[in-house]
Write a structure and sequence with these properties.
Number of strands: 9
Helix content: 25-40%
CATH architecture: 3-Layer(aba) Sandwich
Strand order of the largest sheet: 1-4-5-6-7-9-8
CATH topology: Aminopeptidase
Shape: globular
Length: 186
């Protein structure tokens, strides 16, 4: 059995990151609806099966890497290694104004999914949040990334909010909605 080691991430190698940060695929999504009347605004999320899997690819840019480097300087970024192979990465920054640990990136190499690596990394993030005297860990994902939502829920995160225009002014029309997951630190 190969040992997985979780270590602080202090440098950003964009090529290595691009091997891990590749996007997601889902066979379900949360359909998001907003209903507005004179006396009430409602938001609902309803899980729906998709006829065709939703695939979103994404790769970090040089601009992203610059932001990641700043976050790493805070001491709240981690990587998982199998030997010298990076198999997981977490980029996070403490936001002291509201005592939160905001996770920008949380990824496990696709060949290493379902081996408990994400679980180990998230547990380490909770420990880091406590060490930094933070009250909550925040993750942002999309209504189309049901596997991520389920993972966060299994890690005791709650769905805490949505943003209908987080990525663009057409998010709601395009049905790609930001979903915020939070875990309070006890």
């Amino acid at each position: 059995m190969t040992v997985i080691e979780i270590r602080p991430l202090d440098t950003i190698d964009l090529d290595r990151m691009r091997e891990i940060i590749v996007g997601h695929t889902s066979t379900e999504k949360y359909a998001v609806r907003q209903t507005v009347s004179d006396d009430e605004v409602k938001f609902s999320l309803k899980l729906k099966a998709l006829e065709t899997p939703f695939c979103q690819t994404w790769q970090p840019t040089e601009e992203d890497a610059a932001a990641y480097r700043k976050a790493c300087a805070e001491g709240t970024c981690l990587a998982a290694y199998e030997g010298e192979l990076m198999v997981g990465v977490v980029i996070a920054e403490p936001r002291h104004w509201n005592e939160s640990l905001y996770i920008w990136e949380f990824h496990v190499r696709q060949s290493h999914h379902r081996r408990g690596i994400g679980w180990l990394m998230m547990e380490e993030m909770i420990i880091l949040a406590r060490k930094h005297n933070l009250r909550v860990v925040v993750c942002e994902t999309q209504n189309t990334n049901v596997p991520a939502i389920r993972f966060y829920q299994a890690m005791d995160f709650s769905m805490d909010g949505i943003d209908l225009s987080y990525y663009s002014n057409e998010d709601y029309e395009n049905d790609i909605i930001a979903v915020f997951m939070k875990r309070k630190i006890d």
